[in-house]
Amino acid sequence: MGLFSNLFGSLRHPKINGFWKTLTAYTPSFTTWRGDLYESELCRSAMDARARNISKLKIQVQGTAKPFLQTKLRLGPNQWQTWGQFLYRLSTILDMQNTAFIVPVLGSYGDVTGIYPILPSRCEIVDVSGEPWLRYKFSTSDVAAIELASVGIMTKYQYQDDFFGSSNTALNETMSLIEIQNQGITEGIKNSATYRFMAKLGNFSKSEDVAKERKRFSEENLQSDSDAGGLLLFPNTYNDPKQIISRPYTIDAAQMEYIRTNVFNYFGVNSDILQNKAFGDAWSAFYEGCIEVFSVQLSDVLTKMLFTDRERAQGSFIIATANRLQYMSNTDKLNVSSQMADRGLFTINEIRDIWNMDPLPDGDKTIARGEYKETGSADPADPAEEDKKDD
After folding, report:
1. Where are the alpha helices (DSSP H) in the chain?
2. Judging by DSSP bridges, how do beta strands 152-155 and 99-106 pair with one another?
3. What is the distance between the alpha carbons of residues 320 and 302, in angstroms, rounded to a whole number?
4. pLDDT grade, residue 25 (50/70/90)?
């Protein structure tokens, strides 16, 4: 029993009637993009910044349907990953491929016991008795098919295909510029550690004599183990020696910033996000433009994947949430805490959660300015209550 068997059970080879027809003219197939995106330090940092923050989402299961599955999901997505690991890898796959597949983990009796993000080398939507199935091919040469209705599919940049996102080929030109810049810096460092020169050589008429003299001079003066001591002495056979100064071209700061901006715009991040400097309004903007979009799509995909229409109608769903208030400045946290407490909108434990403090046993109650009493209580010492008694 391996991971493949847990995810797909025994190899399933249903009778396939060809590709399942879609509305577009494109063949309904997905191929893993083998670009060097993840090998770029800048792109990997951008994807890591997104995945790190997305991995902090809290997965909550609501409703009464499938209680066994709900218990399993509250403990983790599967037996091999934590929710943080699951979300991090799912986010990275989505950024790299613009299509991410979530498949059910099957138990001994074919029941769903969890979910797992997979990275197939190829996926095709095929027709099985008139129903769409996904046929996966992995780099290990394993092949399996599963009903489309049983799988969750997350996408980005979805345009040409009815089910899958487009590739990241739009970044090819920027990646080429990054590679050229890195090569230029490397060559510049190499050339700065060496020196070259040219000179006229007298009294040599044969080309083989010139080659012998060049080899002799290099061995005696330019080898790292030579005894030249850093001093070059030219005999009078050399005329008009001149140093060759190599000035490799490198992209200036403005052009490099343009390249960085292209990558940042593509992934929806900036330098503050990458360097963990964003908080307050800056982090809220990143949350709304990046994390919230991911959490909404993930919530919808998992809910549709794991619950039937009837179960969803009865209130069973999965939601991915984040405590955005934890990323405010201390001044903003204090202001929100006091204002919400004054109006009885936050419980004591909700306020403590903003400050990353442990909950209190009796902290799930609200307080309101009065000066501060439990909402719904009638304090006999309250002047308003005393006036009512007098009346």
Report:
1. 3-8, 41-54, 67-75, 83-97, 172-192, 207-221, 253-267, 271-274, 281-286, 292-306, 309-313, 330-342, 348-354, 383-390
2. antiparallel
3. 10
4. very low
Whole-number Cα distances in Å, 242 to 202, 234, 249: 15, 12, 22
Q: Pseudo-torsion of CA 265, 271, 275, 277, nearest 10°? A: -110
pLDDT digit string, tens, across residues 193-232: 555 666 676 666 677 777 787 787 777 766 655 555 556 6
Instruction: Report yes or no on whether pTM surpasses 0.85.
Output: no
CB pairs under 8 A, 24+ apart, for 182-187?
184/248, 184/249, 184/250, 184/251, 185/250, 187/248
pLDDT at 21: 54
Question: What does the domain layout of the chain look like in residue ranges?
Answer: 3-168, 174-244, 328-382
In whole angstroms, what is the distance from residue 384 CA to residue 378 CA?
10
254 Cβ contact list (under 8 Å, min separation 6): none
* Cα(43)–Cα(176) distance, integer angstroms: 13
Instruction: Tell which phi-psi region holds residue 230, choosing left (phi > 0), alpha (psi between -120 and 50) or beta.
Output: left
Mean pLDDT of 72-81: 91
At 272-313, the pLDDT tens digits run 999 988 877 888 888 889 999 999 999 999 999 999 999 999
Lookup: tokens for 327: 């990323």
